[in-house]
Amino acid sequence: MSEIAHEIATQPECWRRAAEAAVRGIDVLPATGSTVAVVGCGTSLYVAQAYAALREEAGHGRTDAFPASEFPLGRAYDRVVGISRSGTTTEVVRVLEALGPEPTVVITAVPGTPVVGAAGGAVSLPFADERSIVQTRFATSVLALLRVQLGGDIAPAIADGERALAVPPPADPRAFTQLVFLGRGWTVGLANEAALKMREATASWAESYPAMEYRHGPISVAGPHTLVWTLGDVEPDVSIDVEATGATVVHGELDPMAELVLVQRMAVALAEDKGLDPDHPRHLTRSVVLS
Q: Which of 152, 176, 200 is at the close of a domain?
């Protein structure tokens, strides 16, 4: 079994432990009413996007998500949250160092790393660390932690996650040359992450969009060899228009985090079918550390 396959299978239990960590981290995570920015790179950016939308939807206060390299240092926030699995990502370290410890907190898998030293507070999830270069359980565990911190109940998500490990993926990706993931609200970030998983692990043509935006141009290349997978609630008219192109539509019925587990499993299966190593995609390293 590949490392990533093992890590995917441990996610429901990691989500339970993340819920416990949310209680321990309550003093350093953003308080209700504060203005918040969340920064990350790659997968961590997409978790930041999902959290930002969830926090605003829950009425906890204005929340923005940025790639760490594009963070506007001149803009004031009550709290800035950095997300970095390895704790060594250069762009995240630079933002935290530039802001100083007072407004900053970091979520990481590895204690004692540069991001922890640069931030004013830290929540560590060592149980969610990974050996595979491709992130799976760390990203979803961070999101589970933040959903609980916002007052959400993730017990249904955990149950759906276990279900997602037991059922076959809803489509055979070998039948398609283009994979598209659509989201709405907080699931736009998850759609972005789903597409990234397919690109990283399988070198596939994979895209992601806010669902309503898909009709504003990208749908023009949809056809019989396109799979369009919706995560969360999407306007029915979008699916109708997509089906009219001849594309196959998968309507996600599980909690969106559990839907992501299905995507991860599909990515591993397709990578292995192509003879690729899903743990070590070409051109990628565990962390991007710049000189």
A: 152
